[in-house]
Structures are given as C-alpha cells and as structure tokens.
Amino acid sequence: MNITIRPERQEDIPDIYELNQLVFGQDTEAKLVEHVREGPNYIPELALVALVDDKIVGYILFSKIGIQNGDVRYESLALAPMVVHPSLRKQGIGSKLIAHGLQKATDLGYTSVLVLGHEYYYPKFGFVPAAKWNIKPPFEVPADVFMARELVPNALTNISGTVEFPFEFSVM
C-alpha cells in the first residue's frame, strides 16, 4: 500500500470532518479540529492527512498547548486527534502519521508533545507517562494514558506543572 502524508488543504476539510465523525461515532473530535483550525494554536504544517490512492484515510493534528507552573508557562504540543479509517487499521497508516508529525514538529523547532491516548500504542513512539516530569493533566485520568515525549533530548528536564489546554478544546 502506497501511503502519502501531506499537510491538510482547504478542500480536505469535509473529508477530515467525515473521517473523524466515522472513527469516533460522534462530532466531538471533528468539531475540535474545526475549532483548533480557527484559533491561534493551529499550526498548518502539523495538520496532516494520510492518503491512499488519493483518498484521505488518516488524519493527525498537533496544536500548541501550555504547561503552567506558577507564573511560568512552557510551550508544548498536543497530539489530538489521530484517526485512521476503520477498514485500514493495523496497516501502518497511524504509525506513519505519528512519525511524520513528530519529525515535522522537531524540524519546526518544537521540543515536546503530550498525548492522552492508549497506554500500549503511544509508547512505541517514545511517549512515556508525563508524571515522569511531574506534568499533570487539568483533569483526572489514569497516569499511564497521559503521556509526553521529548523531541529534543532533555527538553522537559526542569519543566513541571499542569497542562493548560486552549479554549478551543473546551468548545466542542
């Protein structure tokens, strides 16, 4: 299977919405993507589609978030959402999206990424529980599903605090 990864384009938006709706069985994540896309934390180069035969079969979005510790705020990225068409799962599409996105984020100068995701999937890409750095989510979740990854060695050393998700994450 020939998988192509590229940034989303304006004409992709309806297909991205439909794919998120199909995978999640609701509009919540599709609306999240729309809100992030309209806000200041959107990074066009990190909104990526996976194509097979010119059809969108996967999507990943990285957007800016903050880690707040007292008066100090550190910038990081959130990986959310990541979707693959149900008929094409376990064929490497998600892995390619994540690897491509992490490399692009590194190339753009970002130093870390956080994800709320499957505790057995994301560690394959270097994610570990964010609690390792005393980085906490703003809500209760099991520690093993709230993970972080340094894109630059030691990027999270001496960084701790509570993640602040942007307004866009709350208007779904």
Beta strand % = 35-45%
Number of strands: 9
First-to-last CA distance: 34 Å
What is the radius of gyration? 15 Å
Classify the helix fraction into a percent range.
Answer: 10-25%
Indicate the structural class.
alpha+beta
Q: At the first level of CATH, what is the class? A: Alpha Beta
Main beta sheet strand tally, sense and closure: 9 strands, mixed
Mean pLDDT: 95
Domains (count): 1
Question: Which stretches are low in confidence, meaning pLDDT under 50 for 5 or more residues running?
Answer: none
| CATH architecture grouping | 3-Layer(aba) Sandwich
Number of helices: 3
CATH topology: Aminopeptidase
Silhouette: globular
CATH superfamily: Gcn5-related N-acetyltransferase (GNAT)
Q: Could you give the order of the helices and strands? A: EHHEEEHEEEEE
Write out key terms for the chains shown.
172 residues; alpha+beta; Aminopeptidase; nine-stranded mixed beta sheet; 3 helices; 22% helix
Q: In words, what does this structure look like?
A:
The chain is of the alpha+beta class. The chain has a single domain, classed as Aminopeptidase. Helices cover 22% and strands 36% of the residues. Strands 1, 2, 3, 4, 5, 6, 7, 8 and 9 form a nine-stranded mixed sheet that branches. The model has no long low-confidence stretch (mean pLDDT 95).
Present the secondary structure layout.
Blueprint: E1 3-7, H1 13-24, H2 28-38, E2 42-52, E3 55-69, E4 72-84, H3 93-107, E5 112-116, E6 128-129, E7 135-136, E8 146-150, E9 161-164
Parallel strand pairs: 4-5, 7-9
Antiparallel strand pairs: 1-2, 2-3, 3-4, 3-9, 5-8, 6-8
